[in-house]
């Protein structure tokens, strides 16, 4: 079984070969914990959870290390804590716990390690010292800056021209920068902001820039070079480009990660869902209306590299599909996912194809494999059943009224007044109450 993954760096689908099959290593950029995560943030979490499950299936549960960091030092965090009048620690703890609950409700396994930036300041400082010593970084006005011209192949991930990169990075051209593209590795903290003793001989206390956090945490937990690095497409530039620059220059290595994977955006009305655009829906609110598994299936209905248009219709369809899978799956699960489903996933995580294959398993021959496949994806049948029980559509009439109309209809039928019995049936149908006649009598249900 051959896994193929699309690599953003080489712009091609390549056969996946781990550095060490006994320890397949994946790093995915995690949340900045200042507020509830929105449903767009859930996309990379769900996509890379499916990849994590697939890798565990292929290499063994104990042979995959999945690191997803928590960015708990950031200007947005400082600002929000001040706004809410709580400590930074309180804000980041609260937000992280909410995130953990949200993604667990979405059926995602916890990663192997969830390192926090604030617990890796020493590693960041070590990297910064190495970069300064190697002339890849310099000190200016209590900042440490990465010198972009010091790296010959800077820009190889983004493959953009210098002009495009400058526009994309939206770097403020601070007077202390030698080159406008140079980016911050370390900066001074104002009074009241989180701070640590600075590296590189700087006297003033300071704090790390965002990009160095991921270079430090991936190094600590996965080594100088690892297998897969993932995140949303917006992270290609400048975040991942800068991670590559920092890591490769600090270790004099050519490769930070062998496969770079990026999910497309979740969109609303053709625009990226984001906090800055204000068009976001938080995961918490979606989970108040829908079971996590339905959200998960709706998310996997599009290939991870394509954009998804987030709609209620998509959720309704996912609920119907999931319900039909549970109706068809036998209780006796084959623990292995169906081969056809695996084959779809082995082709660069083709989840829409995998879901189509699951529909094909609803016949007698596929029922056992369907159960195992649902388990492989992390779907939980009890969750949907419990949701359906509380969200069963309510009839528009009191039940006693429905019963009395059924009795009237039965009387009309007995008197062979079919015009009247049909009229009663149609009247109820118009109110969403569907009658079903059988030899045991008439039952009713609310139309979905
Ligand atoms: P952030 O907290 O903004 O750093 O984002 C955390 C993760 O969510 C990153 O991997 C982003 O690329 C990803 N992300 C943010 N917005 C979206 C979106 N609308 N669709 C898909 N992924 C997103
Ligand atoms: Zn990162």
What does this structure look like?
The chain has 16 helices and 15 strands. It is 44% helix and 15% strand. The mean pLDDT is 94. The chain has a 4-stranded parallel beta sheet, with helices on both faces. Strands 5-6-7-8 form a 4-stranded antiparallel beta sheet. A 3-stranded mixed beta sheet has the order 12-11-13, with no helix packed on it. It has 3 domains: 4-266, HUPs (Rossmann fold, 3-Layer(aba) Sandwich); 290-391, Four Helix Bundle (Hemerythrin (Met), subunit A), CATH 1.20.120; 399-446, no CATH class. A hairpin with a 2-residue loop joins strand 14 and strand 15. By secondary structure, the protein is α/β, with parallel strands linked by helices. The two termini are 42 Å apart. Zinc ion binds at residues 29, 214, 239. Zinc ion is lined by residues 29, 214, 239.
């Amino acid at each position: 079984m051959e896994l193929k993954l699309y690599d953003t760096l080489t712009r091609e689908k390549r056969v996946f070969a781990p550095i060490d099959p006994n320890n397949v290593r994946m790093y995915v950029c995690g949340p900045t914990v200042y507020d509830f995560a929105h449903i767009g943030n859930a996309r990379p979490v769900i996509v890379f959870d499916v990849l994590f499950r697939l890798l565990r299936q292929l290499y063994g549960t104990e042979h995959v290390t999945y690191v997803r960091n928590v960015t708990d030092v950031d200007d947005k965090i400082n600002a929000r804590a001040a706004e809410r009048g709580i400590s930074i620690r309180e804000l980041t703890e609260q937000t992280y716990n909410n995130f953990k609950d949200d993604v667990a409700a979405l059926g995602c396994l916890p990663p192997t390690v969830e390192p926090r930036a604030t617990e890796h300041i020493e590693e960041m400082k070590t990297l910064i010292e190495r970069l300064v010593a190697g002339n890849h970084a310099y000190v200016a006005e209590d900042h440490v800056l990465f010198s972009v011209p010091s790296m010959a192949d800077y820009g190889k991930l983004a493959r953009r021209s210098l002009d495009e990169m400058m526009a994309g990075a939206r770097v403020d051209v601070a007077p202390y920068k030698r080159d406008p593209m140079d980016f911050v590795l370390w900066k001074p903290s104002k009074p009241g902001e989180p701070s640590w003793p600075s590296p590189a001989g700087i006297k003033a206390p300071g704090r790390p820039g965002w990009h160095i956090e991921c270079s430090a945490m991936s190094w600590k937990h996965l080594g100088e070079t690892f297998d897969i690095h993932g995140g949303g497409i917006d992270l290609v530039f400048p975040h991942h480009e800068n991670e590559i620059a920092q890591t490769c220059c600090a270790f004099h290595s050519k490769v930070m990660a062998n496969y770079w994977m990026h999910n497309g955006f979740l969109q609303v009305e053709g625009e990226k869902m984001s906090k800055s655009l204000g068009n976001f829906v938080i995961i918490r609110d979606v989970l108040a209306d829908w079971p996590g598994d339905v959200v998960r299936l709706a998310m996997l209905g599009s290939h991870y590299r394509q954009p998804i248009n987030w709609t209620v219709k998509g959720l309704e369809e996912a609920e119907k599909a999931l319900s039909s899978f549970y109706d068809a799956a036998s209780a006796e699960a084959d623990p292995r996912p169906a081969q056809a489903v695996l084959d779809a996933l082995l082709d660069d995580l083709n989840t829409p194809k995998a879901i189509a294959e699951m529909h094909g398993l609803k016949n007698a021959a596929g029922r056992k494999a369907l159960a195992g496949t649902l388990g492989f994806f992390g779907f939980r049948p009890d969750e949907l059943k419990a949701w359906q029980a509380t969200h069963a559509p309510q009839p528009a009439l009191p039940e006693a009224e429905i019963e009395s109309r059924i009795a009237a209809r039965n009387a009309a039928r007995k008197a062979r007044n079919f015009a009247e019995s049909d009229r009663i049936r149609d009247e109820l149908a118009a109110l969403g109450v569907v009658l079903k006649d059988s030899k045991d009598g008439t039952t009713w249900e609310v139309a979905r």
